[in-house]
Amino acid sequence: MRSVITALIIALAVILLFYWAPIVGIVFDESVALAQPLRVSDNSVNIGYVTGYAADFSKIGGTEISNPIPDSQKMGAVTFRMALNSYHTFFRSDMSIDLDKITVNFVSPSGSETLLQKSSRPMIKPGWTITKKTGVLPYEYADQDNILEPYESYEILVYPSTPLPPMSQFLIFIRLQDKNQIFITRSVPETITQVMSLN
Question: Closest Cα to residue 45, out of 77, 13, 92, 78?
Fold first, then answer.
């Protein structure tokens, strides 16, 4: 009997998490913290591990970049992890996102620019590229195409035209092929270091 009650409690928790959280986000939309569950459950893609890099790098991860004017006092590039929302993939096993068909915009105090996907190395700014493909589950590996599928995780490098000074705000706006939109808003730290967590 206890196992049945436990199973019912778990099922109820899942229902509340994915069905009531969006309603809470709508009702209390003035609070970013309360509106966040709506964005997480509504979007087909999750974003995480946002990292900034000083503008004097010649290689980020395993990706060589062309950096003609190094500047250790500014932030030059941003990376983040992208994976499909498990809530959506639970109901749609055929779900995928073709990253060759997304649009990436970078907005900063210097202005707004649409970044083109770059596959050549070293990478020349401005642009964005896929730097790493991994599997989400143990012993699962990502294939070599640019189609983000369930249980895959891709690392994206965004390399804008102009490095950002400390304390400046920026927005990465991604439009997906399924018409969903992702907004990554962050601020450059007050102190520039080689690698900066922006989560």
Answer: 92
Average pLDDT over residues 91-95: 62
Q: Which of 156, 158, 184, 190 is nearest to 170 (CA)?
A: 184
Q: How many domains does the chain have?
A: 2
Tokens 């030059």 identify what position?
76
Q: pLDDT band for position 34 (50/70/90)?
A: very low
Confidence (pTM): 0.76
The CATH number that applies at residue 62 is 2.60.40
